[in-house]
Design brief:
The two termini are 34 Å apart. By secondary structure, the protein is mainly α. The longest helix is centred in the middle third of the chain and has 42 residues, at 81-122. It contains seven helices and no strands. The radius of gyration is 20 Å and the shape is elongated.
């Protein structure tokens, strides 16, 4: 019982792991804004959807800048600092742009478009019901696509861009 309580002490946990605001807090969900926008595309003005892309892009950019600042601190005045910072920013931005914005946005867009089309061809439901059903399908798809997309983007970058600048794994 004593060991369990010790392991649950927040003061002990804070010293062992630094919280990354962009990956370990609610802020992470801002990266999913465009997927939510795509799921609602059939129900809202397109300007709303583009607004969700703006939110997700701001999240991606802020995370990339944050990782650049952390790389700058980590490398101090060492030679190659500028290169290391640039690598951290580019790697984070490209990874996040692909894994948080482009691929999932496209995926949810196509899932919703296909479901709206199929519902239109196979049911006699009124259009508003088909649109709400499409939105529900899109929203429910989001949790299932995250991990496969993240792993695929890791593989893609490990097989291409990261070979150019000699990174073995994603910059953390």
């Amino acid at each position: 019982m004593e060991e369990k309580q010790e392991g649950m002490d927040p003061a002990v946990e804070k010293t062992s792991k630094t919280v990354d605001i962009y990956r370990d807090t609610w802020v992470r969900f801002l990266g999913y804004a465009n997927e939510v926008g795509e799921a609602f595309r059939a129900l809202v003005p397109v300007s709303f959807v583009w607004g969700t892309y703006a939110v997700a892009t701001l999240y991606v950019s802020a995370d990339a800048v944050d990782k650049g600042k952390k790389a700058a601190v980590a490398h101090g005045d060492n030679p190659g600092k500028t290169t290391r910072v640039a690598v951290a920013v580019v790697d984070t931005f490209v990874w996040q742009a692909l894994a948080s914005v482009m691929i999932p946005g496209f995926t949810i867009n196509r899932v919703c478009a296909a479901s709206l089309y199929i519902l239109g061809r196979t049911t006699k439901w009124p259009l508003p019901v088909r649109k709400w059903t499409t939105t529900a399908i899109g929203l429910s798809t989001i949790p299932f696509i995250i991990t496969p997309i993240d792993r695929s983007v890791d593989f893609l970058l490990d097989s291409s861009l990261r070979k150019v600048y000699g990174e073995g794994e994603k910059h953390k």
